[in-house]
Amino acid sequence: MQRLGHVAIWTVLLLAAGVTLFPFIWMVLTSFKPEPLITSHPEWLWPREWTLTQYQDVMRRIPFVRFTLNSVVFAGGVTLVSLVLDCMAGYAFARLPFRGRQILFVLVLVTLMLPFHVTLIPVFVLEHKLGLLNTYLGLILPRATNGFGIFLMRQFFVSLPAELDEAARLDGAGDWRIFTRIYLPLAQAPLATLALFHFMYNWNDFLWPMIMTTENLMRTLPVGLALFKGAHVIEYGVLMAGSTLALLPMFVAYVFAQRYFVKGIAMTAIKG
Amino acid sequence: MRRYGGVTAERARAGWLFVLPSMIILAVFVYGPLLAAFQMSLQKFSLAAQHQTFVGLDNYARLLQDPRFWGALRNTAYYTLGTALPGVAVSLALAMALNRRVRGIAWLRGVFFLPVITSMAIVAIIWTFLLDPDIGGLAPQLKLLGLPVKAWLRDPDWAMPAVILVGLWKNAGFYMVIFLAGLQGIPEAYYEAAAIDGAGPWARFRHVTLPLLTPTTLFVSIIAVIASFQVFDQVYVMTGGGPLFRTETLVQYIYTQGFRNFQMGYAAAVAFVLLVIVLLLTLLQMRINRSGLTGH
């Protein structure tokens, strides 16, 4: 009976794993098929004829390299800048008593509850007026700090013992020096988690970069591919090649750093 | 004493300088726009016009009589029920099945987490193609099993279930990880005691796992509902809100009114409805947190 239960559980688990993986496997295999094969024999999962034309086409039909560059600059830029700002603000909220600190921290926490769709229209109007649409600055700046990141870093710095900086203070070290020399080196683990989260979130993001760019050359990968799909319904081979390439960096990173992904992303659940 | 006061003042100044960049960015791109959004919702707002007309609560009144708004609200609720409830059940089942120490289990868990790290927009492209009745990858498999094949995304009754399916597939792994953490927090001793009392697997689940996991279950349910209410990417990519507006959700409607029809004041009013719903759900969550029901 116990044995039977085990067999049943494992069968269901492997079946579920198959359902989870099938779309990805099918995407990759389809991206190596010639277009006629895709449309005439959808029942053949395995390509009976392999080709790289879909990958050549995706480079020719879409400014794919440019989309990739945009994604890297956007996701990378947000990650770098917000790590610095989140960390500094989190440190101050944890370690530097100043007047109004409580109120400001509550204001930071309030941003965690707001669906960003509410501010989307006014921010679009603002960027339109400032001429920031279709610029990297316009994509990055509004995301350059983030309530969740500040909260996470504050929780980390609060957990450290207060005696850490006493010796340095007696030696007359300034706050910037204490922050960069004593506290920052200790914060590598939470910073790595936060970096992963920021990069992945923005690399995968859709609505924000779609609204803030109107020129095709400024699109990020998800936006560029999705809009190409909207305009060319039938060309699935090209789309599967583009999707495979767009997902590849995350997949590779995930294989090598699976534990950090799971831990880091599970942590984001606590943001509410 | 003087020196102490000097240091405190210096630290306070440093504190201000450290939070200043973040606070300026939040002020310009969050707090300001939040107030602006409310102001816009009281205006007939267009990008081109030099000055905007104040219309009071007209946008909100119009909203109450707009069948497309009510439809969007209904569709969002449908999506939420369709993803959150089964999502919690599926991810709990997955977590329980995967909560064992066996070689390779980490890799199997990793498989279920894979959709979580991918872009929803790209996942939606893949699924749109998969669900294509003529050249998609799903139709042949279903025919093999003797199941009917439909143009799901073009069928008013089937489009939303298809979108829901993708939401489930994408997020189950995320909730699974939270459930796994919850399950690992239940002391083994409880199960041993139950086993000694002669409790079978179902009784152990019913009387040990489920009650002790209540905090996690509540937590997952609420974050799932909050996330579902803001669904957009897969709707936009897979159906664009169609057919016959049957998959048009609140955010899709905000997008269409604001950025397609350029009725930005009206879109802002719809966005405020979403804000109120999300705030109420968040407050509910905080209440539950504070009551000590959840461990988070």
Describe the structure.
The complex is a heterodimer of chains A (272) and B (296). By secondary structure, chain A is mainly α. In chain A, 73% of the residues lie in helices and 0% in strands. Chain A has 15 helices and no strands. The model of chain A has no long low-confidence stretch (mean pLDDT 91). Chain B is mostly helical and 296 residues long. Chain B contains 12 helices and 2 strands; from the N terminus they run H-E-E-H-H-H-H-H-H-H-H-H-H-H. Chain B has a two-stranded antiparallel ribbon with strand order 1-2. The longest helix of chain B has 40 residues, at 2-41. The model of chain B has no long low-confidence stretch (mean pLDDT 90). At the A-B interface, helix 1, helix 4, helix 5, helix 6 and helix 10 of A face helix 1, helix 3, helix 4, helix 5 and helix 7 of B.
What's the topology here?
The complex is a heterodimer of chains A (272) and B (296).
Chain A: H1 2-31, H2 35-40, H3 53-61, H4 64-95, H5 101-110, H6 117-130, H7 136-140, H8 147-158, H9 166-170, H10 175-183, H11 188-204, H12 207-212, H13 221-231, H14 236-256, H15 258-268
Chain B: H1 2-41, E1 43-44, E2 53-54, H2 58-64, H3 67-98, H4 105-113, H5 120-130, H6 138-144, H7 159-184, H8 188-196, H9 201-229, H10 233-238, H11 250-260, H12 264-290
Helix pairs in contact in B: 1-12, 2-12, 3-7, 3-9, 4-7, 7-9, 9-12, 11-12
